[in-house]
Amino acid sequence: MNLVRARAVALRQFYLIKGSPVRILPMFGWVMLDVTVWGFISRYLNTFSGSGLNFVPQLVGAVLLWDFLIRAMQGFATAFLEDAWSRNFLNIFASPITIPEYLCGLVATSVVTTAVGLTAMIVLAGPVFGFSLASLGLLAVPFVLLLFLFGVSLGIGAAALVLRLGPAGEWLVWPIPAILAPFAGVFYPVSTLPVWMQAVSHAVPPSYVFESLRALVAGRAPAPGDIGMAVVLTALWLLAACEVFTRVFRQVVRTGLLARYSAETVN
Q1: For the whole model, what pTM was predicted?
Q2: 41: helix, coil or strand?
């Protein structure tokens, strides 16, 4: 793998952001709005809690980590879509760049954009609502890393979808986090779900992360094996996403769809 080529992919995104400051707002604007809304909801719920339960770390912490995952996915998918919107695929893949180099460049872009969003959320959640990731201890590190990698796997899968269906496939990309949220158990234990939904939840890595988060907030140790299961599942999702993207890319090149890439591309 030539890291210079991967760096070039990331550098192109940097120049796009530099040339259009409007692209900066989505990096932190919507996630800060989410944290603000849920922060005040948490404070409001605390006024009705007779048990002394503090909703702030449970709800604000969940929103912060879930929005972080969404930003990881969207950071990757948006960088890919920049090439789709500009019909730039032929220019990119006419060069010697390989699929792993291209994906690594998009992941590097996602790292930067996601870091901006996470920093903004931490700056807001700490002073305003009194929640800090540091309160989770060392487990905050694997939580953030696992959610980022799972978000990237969703971004790669979304990119494969758009590559196969054409730019119109973008309409299927943005609902993905909303579809997964009920199964991830972001705001409630997985045990509250119907049995068939629990089966899906056990295959989704974030469900183990949020179960561990709730255990920590409640003063309990996370269930043994939860983090290990999340690591295994995240690795499987990431490998599967890369395999799907590679297969889709080879198909669109073999069938000539890449050269005819347009808003109506499906077959």
Answers
A1: 0.89
A2: helix
Query: Are the beta carbons of 265 and 165 closer than 8 angstroms?
Result: yes
Q: Tens digits of per-residue pLDDT, 64-100?
A: 999 999 999 988 998 888 888 877 777 787 788 888 9
Write out pLDDT tens, residues 116-160: 888 888 888 888 787 777 777 787 888 899 999 999 999 999 999
Q: In sequence order, which residues have a C-beta less than 8 Å from that of residue 131 and are 6 or more positions away?
A: 39, 56, 57, 60, 61, 64, 125
Query: How far apart are the C-alpha atoms of 72 and 90, rounded to whole Å?
Result: 26
The two three-digit tokens of residue 162, written as one number = 């758009």
Q: How far apart are the first and last CA of the chain?
A: 32
Phi, psi (deg, nearest 5) at residue 87: 55, 50
Long-range contacts, 122-131 (Cβ 8 Å, 24+): 122/64, 124/32, 124/35, 124/36, 124/39, 125/35, 125/39, 125/60, 125/64, 128/36, 128/39, 129/35, 129/39, 129/42, 129/43, 129/56, 129/60, 130/56, 131/39, 131/56, 131/57, 131/60, 131/61, 131/64
- How is the chain split into domains, by residue range? 3-255
